[in-house]
Amino acid sequence: MLNPDLDSIQLLPEEYERYSRHLILPEVGLAGQKRLKAASVLCVGTGGLGSPLALYLAAAGIGRIGLVDFDVVDASNLQRQIIHGTSWIGKPKVASAQHRLLELNPFLQVDIHETALTSENALTIAQDYDLIIDGTDNFPTRYLVNDTCVLLGKPNVYGSIFRFEGQATVFNHQEGPCYRCLYPEPPPPGLVPSCAEGGVLGILPGVIGVIQATEAVKIILGDAPTLSGRLLLYDAWAMKFRELKLRKNPECPICGPNPTITALIDYQEFCGIPAQPEAPPTLQEGTVQELQQRLQQGNIVLIDVRNPHEYEIAHIPGSTLVPLGDIEQGLGIENVRELAQNGEVWVHCKSGMRSSKALQLLAEKGIQGTNVKGGILAWSDQIDPTVPRY
Asked: What's the whole-model pTM score?
């Protein structure tokens, strides 16, 4: 409730003590704390960004917090997703996050939506919240969150992270631009690696998530300058902040004066992601069990297309490192061609995505091979558990 009836909102005696450092700030005071208590915020995602922003929103006294996530806690999450703990591995993230938030501040209402946000449910879920915070890590959901906010007239507090870099802004607020004004078209599928493929400094989402929480609190308090119309860029490695000015696109298809998007669409299709991805007809796949048999029989060449630092973490004995980047640049093509003279080519990566791409490039040069389904993660799970997962 961005414009609540403050006379109808009362703080409990325990809340006066809890929020005392807010109450003595003239910019917040009793009226501001009542605004925070009356407000409702929907956090889409309880991962790297969702963890710190939800924790600080809860600590600040946001009265109602909604959490949307369909995933479960994995050990690899805990390097950055600080809202979760080891005891919650394998359990729903929304349940883990709800438990932690209520432990931090029992004077909250925490709603959980254990589901993926989709075109079918986004408007229904989001309509009862004052503002939406985008803590997602994929382009279809970012466009979905944006369009939902524009159609419902709600601010969209945006953040994204990758490796050592992050960015944050506020979309659809104070007549400012929306996400489509900044990114009219999504990048081609596979062009931007995920954090699982490219990595992310664990501390980075803490910085960006806290910035998102700060913007949300300022929007609720009102009269505070926000990042609307400004894109904040952060480089953790260089420890530098930069700022770019954003302008509203007069031809934006959803927030412009003549919108062509008046309802939620198929965002997977919009981002060029097929509903049921299929391997190209020329791509052969084999299981890790089949790979193990072929390695025992000999006359096989196993190519690892991950990066050198990944190979150092873990590798399958007998594999040869030829990074995908080298193959894309043509430098590794002849290396593989030469190796192929020694036997049948099998190719693997971490999970099977990069190796699939490598095989397509190799096929264009007349080199056929078999993709290892599930990559080295499947090898660790099903063949040799001593091979570290990462």
From this structure: 0.80
